[in-house]
Amino acid sequence: MTQGTRATAAEPLRLAEGIQGIVSDWSSDQRAFKNVPWGKAMMWIFLLSDTFIFSSFLISYMTVRMSTTDPWPNPSEVFALTLFGHKIPLILIAIMTFVLISSSGTMAMAVNFGYRKDRVKTFVLLLVTAALGATFVGMQAFEWTKLIVDEGIRPWGNPLGAAQFGSTFFMITGFHGTHVSIGVIFLLIVATKVIRGDLDHERPGFMTGRKGKYEIVEIMGLYWHFVDLVWVFIFAVFYLW
Amino acid sequence: MAHAEAQQHPVAGHVEGQQHPIGIYLKIWGLLFVLSTASYLVDYFHFQGYLRWFLIILFMLLKAGLIVAVFMHMLWERLAMVYAILVPTVLLMVLLGIGALEADYTFFTRGVFFLKGLL
């Protein structure tokens, strides 16, 4: 490499940009992901693997829906609710979508205030995010109860049409709901660390010798936004299609 | 330890972590609300056929793009990382294609099977 990338204490390393940047990052010593804490890079790699899991679910849903000869139950009617005497199609799912998007918004702001070292605001926003996440899971529990008890939908069959409706519905939304639940627990743990001042005083976390830093809020945020991202796809291809 | 430390050196003109004005998050938040409402209205107004599918896919991709680009900060990451995460997902298109082919074939053979049963 002839182009000078020598760093001195006074002048930090200048990194190449664009395609040249990709080549030099990937061919460099030790680390390919520059300017990114390793925890964040690892979270991204985990999320990539999770993307493949959810995509496999959604693609297998497509496959069984396309290949069934029975009529597919109309999600617009299955997920309708009667509110104030009116039957509104898909309203519960719409509310769940708004709840999850709002939680993503508060999460993004928590990350922002975290990097500004605003301990209290970060804590409050993390708690609001967790509360919205828990609300989402609660609404999902309500939805499942309604489907199982009132509509008689089971993973192996249902009175409305194709049996594959129940199996894909419970698998996909169940897996997503599990992710949200784990995310809520994860949020509460990070919120506790924030309010205790673990990150300000760089105390190492449980089972690690690494110093606590506000980057863990961003890493947590990546997971949470991913859960929201998956919901965008589920909402589009399962509920709206 | 040395290289963990080295990474803390910010690049010229770059502060620690991802710091952006709060306004951009609020704008994207609002935009996501608008897009979600729009995709809900697709169902509410009973759009059918290609228009429905086109609109659903369009709103889905716009929302996904905004979340990944801004909320997950992909817009500001180095290309080496963006490509490492986003390019592999293109492979899923292959799985999607295989799934569609297989489903068509299964549907066809089921049709033939059930038709024979009737004759």
Give the gist of this structure.
The complex is a heterodimer of chains A (241) and B (119). By secondary structure, chain A is mainly alpha-helical. In chain A, 66% of the residues lie in helices and 2% in strands.
Account of the 3D structure:
The complex is a heterodimer of chains A (241) and B (119). With 241 residues, chain A is an all-alpha fold. Chain A has one domain (38-240): Cytochrome c oxidase, subunit III, four-helix bundle (Four Helix Bundle (Hemerythrin (Met), subunit A), Up-down Bundle). In chain A, 66% of the residues lie in helices and 2% in strands. Chain A is built from seven helices and two strands; from the N terminus they run H-H-H-E-E-H-H-H-H. A two-stranded antiparallel ribbon of chain A has the order 1-2. The longest helix of chain A has 33 residues, at 164-196. Chain A is globular, with a radius of gyration of 22 Å. Chain A starts with 17 loop residues before the first helix and ends with a helix. The mean pLDDT of chain A is 90. Mean pLDDT of chain B is 85; it is low at 1-14. Chain B has helices spanning 2-6, 22-44, 49-71, 79-86, 92-118. Chain B folds into two domains: 1-77; 78-119. Chain B is elongated. Chain B is an all-alpha fold and 119 residues long. Chains A and B meet through helix 1, helix 2, helix 4 and helix 7 of A and helix 2, helix 3, helix 4 and helix 5 of B.
